[in-house]
Fold:
Amino acid sequence: MTYFAGNIRALRQAKKWSQEKLATLLDVRGGTISNYETGTSYPDFKTFVDIVKLFGVSADDIIFKDLSQGEYVAQEPRSHIKEEEIPEKNIYEDRLKEKDELIKALKDSINLYKELLTTRSGHQKAA
Structure:
C-alpha cells in the first residue's frame, strides 16, 4: 500500500496552500494536483523530485509512510531549495531558446568552415 495521494494532500494542507498554488509551484495544471491527491494519476519523475524537495521529505517517506499525522508534516524542508526558488516555466523556455541559438551558431560556423575549405582547395588547384 502506498500513501502518496494522502500525503500530497496532507503536506499541501499543512502549508495552507491551495491546489492551484501547489500546481503553480510545480509548473503543472491545476487539475493535476487533484488527480495526484485522489490517486487518479501520478507525477512524472521530475515533478516527483520537485515535490519531495519542496516539502522536504524523502521519496520513501512520501510513498510508504502515512505523513498525515504528527509533527512530520510541519517540518521545515530539508532541501536547500526554497519555495520561492523554484523556477518559473519561462526559465525553461529561455533555455530552449538559448539552445536553439547555440545550434544555429554552430551550424553557421560549420558552413563557414566548409566554404573556407572549398575556397582554399580551389585556390590550390588553380596554382
Summary: Helices lie at 4-14, 19-26, 30-38, 45-55, 59-64, 89-126. The CA atoms of residues 23 and 29 lie 6 Å apart. The mean pLDDT is 82. The domain at 1-86 is CATH 1.10.260.40 (434 Repressor (Amino-terminal Domain)).
